[in-house]
Specification:
single chain; elongated
């Protein structure tokens, strides 16, 4: 089978193919189609890689809409509309304006800093640490109960953010 024929067969059985780094192909196929189509996919892999790369768009084959995709910890890509990223709630309300020109990191830049997704104390109250500025100088916190007129998302200097492990030892 040619690569085009393989793609047509995959779509005919309701499956889909996608690119995986580096130069791999992922597939979602009905169990009955696996014995026939997986060898065909492997045989046509070089041409399929070219076709998938050339025709790549963000249109989901399941819902047909153009939407965002997210990658899970195993490296598989998912449609954000069909399978919302369970981690996406972290970013609700965060805009490019909120981030400014900061380079961010999703891990604590130093061992003595709380990790993102940890509850923290700040001068404005308790919150959820969203991310760090890459140098660790400041962290973005979603306040649980922002004061009237105060934004829910606030950048605080690192020395003003106390992780929940340290709550009993220090005060904000």
């Amino acid at each position: 089978m040619t690569a085009q024929q393989v793609l047509a067969e995959v779509q005919a059985v309701g499956g889909h193919l996608w690119l995986l780094p580096p130069d791999r192909i992922g597939w979602d196929l009905p169990d009955a189609a696996v014995p026939e189509l997986v060898p065909a996919i492997r045989a046509a892999k070089p041409e399929l890689l070219r076709l998938l790369a050339a025709g790549r768009d963000d249109t989901c084959p399941a819902c047909g809409t153009s939407t965002y995709r997210w990658q899970d910890s195993a490296g598989a890509w998912h449609c954000g509309k069909c399978e919302p990223d369970p981690r996406a709630d972290r970013w609700e309300g965060v805009t490019l304006a909120t981030l400014g020109d900061r380079a961010i990191t999703l891990t604590a830049p130093a061992r003595d800093l709380p990790a993102p997704r940890e509850w923290v104390k700040t001068p404005a109250g308790l919150g959820d640490l969203i991310c760090w500025e890459a140098s660790g100088a400041e962290g973005l916190v979603r306040l649980f109960r922002p004061r009237q007129g105060q934004a829910a998302l606030v950048w605080f200097p690192a020395e003003r953010i106390i992780g929940e492990i340290e709550w009993s030892r220090r005060r904000a």
